[in-house]
Structure formats: structure tokens, C-alpha cells
Amino acid sequence: MATEIKVPVLGESITEATLGEWLKQPGDPVKADEPVASLETDKVSVEVPAPVAGVMGPHAVKVGDTVQVGAMIGTVEAGGAAAAPAPAPSPAAATPAGPGEQPQPRADDAAVSATSRAEAAAALSPSVRRAVLETGVDPSTIQGTGKDGRLTKDDVLAAAQAPAPSPAPAPAPSAPTGARREERVRMTRLRQTVARRLKEAQNTAAMLTTFNDVDMSAVMEARARYKDLFEKKHGVRLGFMGFFVKAACLALRDIPAVNGSIEGDEIVYRDYADISVAVSAPQGLVVPVVRDADKLSVAEIEKTIGDFGKRAKEGTLKLEEMQGGTFTISNGGVFGSLMSTPIINPPQSAVLGLHRIEDRPVVRDGQIVIRPMMYLALSYDHRLIDGREAVTFLVALKNAIEDPTRLLIDL
Q: Which residues face 349 on adjacent strands?
């Protein structure tokens, strides 16, 4: 008897997804609630669990197909190899090899090895499991470098690239000089959604960007002085994002239009700040939301962002964690960006771009001195936010960063 595998509910207003990959092939043993497929929605990857234990049946859809919520994508056959006891070794298999003879591997040894690798991979995060299944490495032979010894995607890729102990094969013939190649790769659902939403933002909002720069001396000094004590007490490193999120919350309180949005012919103002923080993930940029950031301490903000970053790399962020932000902060400085004009994340009305810190000559008290400076960029919807408000917002944020005491005494 076969049990249907159906697309689960994916979240509010999401009715379809794309089949990203099959984690189980027909004939593979599966356990109840074990992931058998991965779906790509507009924002995250979602695993589809097996409804019962048994053997994976035929696939009803192919990788890359669009599927609706509730649709049947495959089946699990009852019993079969998953429930059958291991057969006793045959006399031929038990016969020891004669002198000078090498014992011959049995056909079922390869099947057992493949099954063991599949079962070990099922306990890993989606991104790590995908790397294991693509490279064919055995995760039980890899020493993890993640938290509590867990495997990371980089561990798997490094193991796959490590030289084998066997003799090196003969070098492959080199491509002809001047040969040109092309590769066509289907856009992921996430990349298609990002492209569509960014173009919608340009077509809808009257976007304008204003710039300022900020002296990072005070924040860098505070970070250098307290980072060890901070990490010892809170279990997380003290970065720059905690300072900028707190400073942005103070500026948003003073300039509420930057935290608002346009809905139809109405303007929505908010007395709370849900800050969207852009983080890098294997499938692209994702923007989880720090809820009620204005009520959190710097330590709580750093813990939340650190958790988001780790789970973004593992592909385990939830859809609801990336919905409902009121203002976005994007830090291109970690990639070396000097200056940019970030694009608004609809329906928000503004986004703050951070950039790399570099020593530059500035004038202080009539003297030219060297200071660690960062450019700030605020892109905003001019339909709602006037230039005066945008500049005032950046100046308020700049003042808070250059004098972090303001963050403590709420100025």
C-alpha cells in the first residue's frame, strides 16, 4: 500500500513552491518524518517529511517543477527493504579467501554503505545534506568544525576536494587555447523573487539616496576595550551591528516617517521598530527581522543577529522570521564595499547601507588627523520622506555612533 507525499502548508499567502531537490530516490528506505524532498519558496527552503516509514516510491514531479500546496509529489511504499530483516550471509560469502586471493566485495555492501551515508546525511542541515549528496562523501568520516563538532558545508566541500590516497590520475588534456564556454543555470525561485521585488521597488517608489560619513573611533575603542568581557558574559562576540541597530532605533523614533510606509492613500506610522538585517546565505541574500529591536539591549541584538547568520548558512531560517520588517540595514562593508545606493525592501520606505571602514584624513579642531571613517547611505521613498527628514535621520544616527554614550542615556 502506498502513502502519498503531499506539499505541506508553506506559510501565509504562499500557495506554490519549486521542487529544489529530491533527498530520497525510488527504492531508498525512509523513516517517518524523515526529509525526502526540499522545496524552494520565495524566501526559504522547506523540507518535505515522509508521512510514514517504508520505501521511497516513484517521484511524481521533477526537480525544477512548480508544485501547489497540497499536491502529491511522490509516494512511500509500505514495508519493503525498510522493514525486512537483514539476510543471513550465504555459505559462499562466508568462505574465507584462499592464499593469495583477495576477498571479493559483495553487491549488498555497496547498498548498505549508500544507505548509511543517506541516513547520516538526513540528520544534517539542508545545506550540508545537499553538499553530502552532491559530492558523495561519507559524513561519518569528516571531522566537523561547527558548534559542538557539527558538520558545516565548508567541511564537506573541503573533504570532497581533498586528494585521494590512490595514485594521481593522468592529467586531463588541456582545453584548446582560446576556447570559450558558456553555462546556463536555471534561476532559483529565491533569485527570481529578489529580481522581481527589486524591480517593483524601482518602478513604484520615488527612490533617492543621501549620504553621510561617520567617525568609528569611539565605537571601535569601546569594542576593543569590552569585547572579551562582553563575549564572556553574553556568549556572543561584540560587533558593530548592535551599535547601528540601536542607533537606528533612536533615529527612527525621532523621524517616524522613515519607519513608516504607504498603503494605498494612507501613511502608516509605527511606534515599534522591527529591523530587517540583510545576511548572506548559500542561496542568496536573505533578510530576517529583529523584532522589537527598540526594546532590546545591544547584547540581545547581537545574539539574535548571530543566530540568524548561523541558521542562514545552514538553510534553517523560517519564513515567518523574514516577514514584517519596518526598516532595513544592509552591511556591504563586510564584502569591501566603499559606497553604494541600496534599494528599498518593499513595503518599507527606507534602507540604510553600511560600508567598509578605512582610515582617511579629516579635520578635527583645525588639525588634519587620521580617523577610521565609514560612509553611510540612506535610500528612501521620496513620496513619504522629505530630504530634510532623510538628512536629519542620518545626522542623528551619526551622532549616536560617534558618541555611543547617547545609546545608554537615550539621547
A: none
